[in-house]
Write a structure and sequence with these properties.
Helix content of chain A: 40-55%
Radius of gyration of chain B: 15 Å
CATH topology of chain B: Pyruvate-ferredoxin Oxidoreductase, domain 3
CATH architecture of the largest domain in chain A: 3-Layer(aba) Sandwich
Structural class of chain B: alpha/beta
Structural class of chain A: alpha/beta
Distance between the termini of chain A: 61 Å
CATH superfamily of chain B: Pyruvate-ferredoxin oxidoreductase, PFOR, domain III
Shape of chain A: globular
CATH topology of the largest domain in chain A: Rossmann fold
Oligomer: heterodimer
Order of helices and strands of chain A: EHEHEHEHHEHEHEEHHEEHEEHEHEHEHH
Strand order of the largest sheet of chain A: 3-2-4-5-7-6-12
Strand content of chain B: 15-25%
Strand order of the largest sheet of chain B: 2-3-1-4-5-6
Order of helices and strands of chain B: EHEEEEHEHHHH
Number of helices of chain A: 15
Number of domains of chain A: 3
CATH superfamily of the largest domain in chain A: Thiamin diphosphate (ThDP)-binding fold, Pyr/PP domains
Number of strands of chain B: 6
Shape of chain B: globular
Helix content of chain B: 25-40%
CATH class of chain B: Alpha Beta
CATH architecture of chain B: 3-Layer(aba) Sandwich
Largest sheet of chain B: 6 strands, mixed
């Protein structure tokens, strides 16, 4: 049913359609509206046979989901930012144990400095934990990816993270086609676990594994991700056949088939990038874009096929690896090994900084003429940065960086530390 | 595409205002995208929300920098925020105030825009009369429909009733109707 609906609410309705049996919730902005929405659907009786458990922390939220999943229940939770870090140990455990939990990440920056707004640093921090990571471009895709995520997770017995941009998607009201229950039931069969803690047939899950077998167990985690590379497109194709719209898959190209410059990005910024591509195409530029939906497993072959004909790649990414540059760009270079391409990194949207078309166009045009640095920070305020660099060089007790930068930005509010 | 920016203070309902605009547009079969500002949301602090309305899918995710229309829920914002920032030459401004543009100190700015595009309506007073509380959103949306012609009053009413079913919704609809008529809606 077509609705004009908040992204979080749409995802909550999608979760209910997937009939989870245990939902663990701990609030953290910007994810909170999702679990609030699920709790309302449980209370109203829309979502039946579901135990909604309020826990005391994110660590508990995922730990309870792990216990529930090991006992054979379809389990779901959601978090963001510091909440994801707080449950980090359980994140690795869920993947290591092969439990098909689905978790939404309302993507948000990581402190310090504390910041509640959107970027991808949280998901990137656990990208190698063994979870499958899918990034939604729109709220429609967020809804569709959750339905696909349960199918994928349970097929492989592997946890799946659905990442959606905090505020930009979670708090946006837009048109979403929320599927009906019968269609979701037909697409997503009841959970049939590959392992289950059952008093009638007791065995243990979570053995200690020494040097003689640890590598083998870890290899099997890698193998599972490689299997996911096959299953993700199959499930997306099945979804399209059942629901009549394309959603998910490993990646999707936009006007990229003949493009000499290809922009690569994750999540909602792809919408703004497509508008920029259209405007530049209208002015004769040979440019297109590729939206990566599956970041783990990383679609090395599919991406290589999608971008190798280009002359240059610009990765627009909402996370920073200090001391390296871009995480997405590093992965893209892995896909292009042996191909002589320039791969640029544009760090953008950190801590909720808007990503305007004009700024994107500027860096894309500089990439076309070779005038772009390997790592570029979009719309960086160099005055403020340089003032702090000079202060730190000249004064031993130069004070806290974040506070100094804020004061330099708003000079009326007191001088920087002396 | 038409782009609308709503200025208010935290707690006055800027997000609900944008949401209702988007729902009204959706009800008319159009695509709409409403979203909050990416700034601090403290009670009483200046806040903004945005709404885009178009006849095709809206892919753009940047904040609205050059709006076609601005709604100002709280006229005291003129002292601290440039509510006209980026407004298009033929844009619309709707201010919640019983005072004249002269009294508000914006008569000169208003002359830069086409006649009738900058209007004040006492939305808070209309809300107090009908709803019994200073909640200006519904009245402002009624006036927005009247001044811009971008939405039908019926769609605004339907959006209000969808969000606030029952007596509160009906009272808000009455406020929207009065403001619509006061600002020239037919």
């Amino acid at each position: 049913m077509l609705k004009q609906i908040e992204g979080s609410r749409a995802v909550a309705e999608a979760i209910a359609l997937c009939r989870p049996e245990v939902v663990c919730a701990y609030p953290i902005t910007p994810q909170t509206h999702i679990v609030e929405g699920v709790s309302e659907l449980v209370k109203a009786g829309t979502l039946k046979n579901c135990e909604f458990i309020n826990v005391e922390s994110e660590f508990a939220a995922l730990s309870v989901a792990i216990g529930a999943s090991a006992a054979g229940a379809r389990a779901y939770t959601a978090t963001a930012s510091q909440g994801l870090l707080y449950m980090a140990e359980a994140v690795y455990n869920a993947a290591g144990l092969g439990l098909p939990i689905v978790m939404t990440i309302g993507n948000r920056a990581i402190g310090a400095p504390i910041n509640i707004w959107n970027d991808h640093t949280d998901s990137m921090a656990v990208r190698d934990s063994g979870w499958i990571q899918l990034f939604a471009e729109t709220n429609q895709e967020a809804v569709d990816l959750h339905i696909q995520a349960f199918r994928l997770a349970e097929l492989l017995s592997c946890p799946v993270m659905v990442c959606m941009d905090g505020f930009i998607l979670t708090h946006a009201y837009e048109r979403v086609d929320v599927p009906d229950q019968a269609a979701v039931d037909a697409f997503l069969p009841p959970f049939e676990p590959v392992q289950v803690l059952d008093p009638a047939n007791p065995y243990s899950i979570g053995a200690m594994v020494g040097p003689d077998a640890f590598s083998e167990v870890r290899y099997l985690a890698h193998h599972k991700q490689l299997e996911a590379l096959e299953k993700i497109p199959e499930i997306a194709a099945g979804f399209e056949a059942a629901f009549g719209r394309a959603s998910g898959g490993l990646l999707s190209g936009y006007r990229s088939e003949d493009a000499r410059t290809i922009v690569v990005a994750l999540g909602s910024v792809n919408g703004t990038i497509k508008e920029t591509v259209d405007a530049m195409r209208a002015d004769g530029h040979s440019i297109g874009s590729v939206s990566i939906c599956a970041f783990r497993p990383f679609p090395l072959v599919a991406l290589r096929d999608a971008i190798r004909h280009a002359k240059r790649i610009v990765c627009v990414e909402k996370s920073l690896a200090p001391g390296l540059g871009g995480i997405v760009a590093s992965n893209v270079r892995m896909a292009l090994r042996g191909v002589d391409h320039r791969v640029y990194t544009v760090i953008a949207g950190l801590g909720g900084r808007p990503i305007p078309r004009a700024s994107l166009r500027d860096v894309f045009e500089r990439a076309e003429t070779g005038g772009l640095d390997d790592v570029t920070f979009l719309d960086l305020n160099w005055r403020v940065v340089n003032e702090q660099l000079v202060r730190a060089r000249d004064v031993r007790h130069s004070g806290p960086i974040a506070e100094n930068v804020l004061k330099a930005l708003n000079p009326g509010r007191g001088a920087a530390a002396k | 595409m038409i782009e609308i920016r709503i200025h208010g203070r935290g707690g006055q309902g800027v997000v609900t205002g944008a949401e209702l605009l988007s729902v009204a547009a959706f009800d008319e079969g159009r695509h709409a995208q409403a979203f909050p500002s990416f700034g601090s949301e403290r009670m009483g602090a200046p806040v903004v929300s945005f709404c885009r309305i178009d006849d095709r899918e809206i892919r753009l995710r940047e904040p609205i920098q050059e709006p076609d229309a601005v709604i100002v829920q709280d006229p005291t914002l003129f002292h601290s925020v440039d509510v006209f920032s980026g407004l298009k030459k033929d844009g619309y401004v709707l201010i919640n105030s019983t005072r004249s543009l002269n009294d508000l100190g914006i008569a000169e700015v208003a002359r830069r825009f086409p006649k009738g595009h900058v209007r004040a309506v006492g939305a808070t007073e209309i809300a107090v009369k009908h709803v019994g509380r200073p909640v200006p959103n519904a009245a402002l949306l009624g006036s927005f429909a009247a001044i811009t012609g971008q939405l039908k009053l019926e769609s605004v009413e339907k959006a209000i009733m969808g969000k606030f079913p029952g007596a509160i919704g009906k009272a808000n609809v009455a406020a929207a109707r009065e403001a619509y008529a006061l600002t020239g809606g037919k």
